[in-house]
Amino acid sequence: MSYLSGAIALALCLCATLPAHAQDQSNRDPSSDKAKNLDGIVVTARSGVDSRTKAETSYSITTIDEDRLRMQAPTSVTEAMKSVPGFWVEASGGEASGNIRARGIPVDGYGSVTLLEDGVPVQHDPALGYLNADQAFRLDETIERIEVVRGGPSSVFYSNAPAGAINFIPRQVGDTAEGLFKYTVGDYGLNRADVWFGTPVGNGWKLGLGGFYRVDNGIRDPGFHANDGGQFRVNLAKDFEHGRFSIDYKHMDDKVALYLGVPMRTYADGKIKAVPGFDGNYGTLAGPETQHVLMKQANGGLYDFDNTDGTHVKRDQLTLKFDYDLGDDWKLAESMRYSDTHTQRNGMFPNSLSSATQFLASAKKFIPAGAAGLQLRYVDDPTKVFDVGGPNSPGQNGNGLVVIGGLRGVTMPVKEFDNDTRLLRKFEWGGQTHDVTLGYSYSRFDQDFSRYSSTVLLDAQNNAKLLNLVAVNAAGQPLSTLTDHGIYRYGYEWENASGTSTSHAFYLSDEWQVTDQLRIDGGVRWEQVNTRGNTEVKQQLNLGNLPMSQVWTGTGQFVPFDHTFSKLGWTLGANWQFTPHAGLFARWTPTFRLPNLSSYITNPSATPVTQTMKLGEVGYKYTDRQIDLYATAFYTKYNNVGFSNYVFDANNSSSVAQQGYADTKTKGLELEGTWFPTSWFDMQLTATWQDPQYKGLRYTDNVNNGPVLRNFDGNQLIRVPKVSYRVVPGVNLLDGKLRLQVAYEHEGMRYVDTANSVRLPAYGVLSASARYDFSKLCSLYLYADNITNSLGLTEGNPRAGELQNADAGANTFIARPILGRAYRAAIMYRF
């Protein structure tokens, strides 16, 4: 606990230097925060001359203010969404590369929700295969609050947002200079500094500066820095007589670890834990021996695989916003963003897991002439023979298991320009008003994509070690090595492609105030996307020096593609505010998601379809001095969801494609509320009950060279629980100077695959946080995450198949648990 002790000492030292008048100021009044959630102004998924509060919206929205955000202290964008009902979030992969499934829509990554920064998309398409929007964005203290819209009109105002929009809203500079500095430490080697400063600079201009830098070893320590880097931003804005102008520049250079599955086992008592010799809470198969590998290519060159990069994103982002009053009640709102993002995404993927005995039996076909058998030996110590185990021995590392790992490197540079223009006017007619917006958005991005991967043989332990496959004589003496320093096959994956996506969209919205209590909101959006590019044809060449020597590479020939899609979507909602404290809302939204560049960039002959969906919701909201409550019933019908799946085949060390299409249907209920029974106690609750089902999911599989019909109609959507909830009780003590709270999260049982053949058990997570205000200017924060060291499994092994998982019925398998217990402390000083 030395990190916590050091943080407390630092806090006392800093606060001792505060001016006397600062230390004497009264601390925050917890009652002042009561019932404020529904009074906040909403800026996400709407447009108009008038402002709207959360209480007045006709759709479901969660607001997370800076106090709540600091007490939760999420370590990633995805982690921040755990307090949002209707979202199933998976943040076990680290600070980036998370997954969100919204209201039963079975799309991984950020394929169903868009990520916004100050109302502008971080990426036009937040789900570009190996480049999800959360990889290109980091939370820091330049962000003041978050607004999360679920369903509703988000698909009218933004592209690729059928299930919602997540808007990170930056701090605004006031009329006086102010700032903050926060330093955070953690028991996993975390050291992080956040800073923000804002000040008027004369002639009406206001300047904001901020960013962060951090380094840590990772909760699952790979033996090198897991996360290393940061970002900074500069914002300059001016309010003038008829409008406002702002320019914002942000630069990010950050490396984050990509955590993947680990070897797990179902034991005799039915509990699922890590295999013997492996730490399920803190272990990772990645380690120093797979940190840096030079992988041979068919052209004679070497591919430099460096796992210390993890997901390494270098991004420059420039944003311009301009609002102007044109006169005669007309207003213009303009926003544009240019970004240049280079992503290198390296990872050590556990493709398959088997006993050493089983693996050696499958490799017998590689025994060379004159050899009597095969052994596994350690690359770093060729005299050390892998213990395959037996009747009286569990085998090497206490488990006798061998992992075929994939060293995968993906390079994705993307340059993007987005523009959104809105013309707004409020009309009065017959005692009623219409707040109308006419908008046009344009987006273009240019993307390159290259991938190269090799397989390695590993043992099953923390920071797994490389193994060689060795041919031996009858006496067990080595004759030849059939692998290359642990490399089982070079080039089992290879891709080279580039493309351009261009989108145009027109939209119209109207907020019709029928009476003082009743408002009807409607909107329509037409969008067109064109994707074009070239994909290099690949071939297999034989390097001739390995048992599995077929290496994928390019032919120099390219296949072009050029496709255009368009679609019309709309939304209609109503809000009945029958008292100042209570109201009802309802909404119906037929919407869509058009095919994207990733649909073609590695498969130019693909024939993806436009995904269409219908979303409905009916909600009740109530607020007073003691309670804020949202209760929403929702319905989602999702059509033409595609399942393109690559299953790793350990017999030939290659990936085999599977494809499927289906519909889904989900009915559910969301609850979100905060209860303030006294000034010293409050409790937050978010809960989701849903029945997510596949409809019409049938496909023909090839089994023993014969067709077999798979029928998964009515099965539960993969990874989506039927029941989940999060409860956060808290107390305010010492006149509000001390805030203590705990958070308990429950995730119900889920499935790995559409066949519902591999179950992920329900689990719970307990965390706690505390804040102590030495004064209004200085605060100490303490955090304890996953206090009970829960081993909740968030996913199985996708490389074993998500249609029908190959791990079905297996006692030992690959799965990804949540991160183990960790402690953090932070000192924040305002000035």
UniProtKB/TrEMBL annotation:
Cellular localisation: Cell outer membrane
Signal peptide: 1-22
Main location: membrane
InterPro entries: Beta-barrel_TonB (IPR000531), Beta-barrel_TonB_sf (IPR036942), Plug_dom (IPR012910), Plug_dom_sf (IPR037066), TonB-dep_rcpt-like (IPR039426)
Protein family (similarity comment): Belongs to the TonB-dependent receptor family.
PANTHER family: CATECHOLATE SIDEROPHORE RECEPTOR FIU, FERRICHROME IRON RECEPTOR-RELATED
Protein name: TonB-dependent receptor
Organism: Dyella tabacisoli
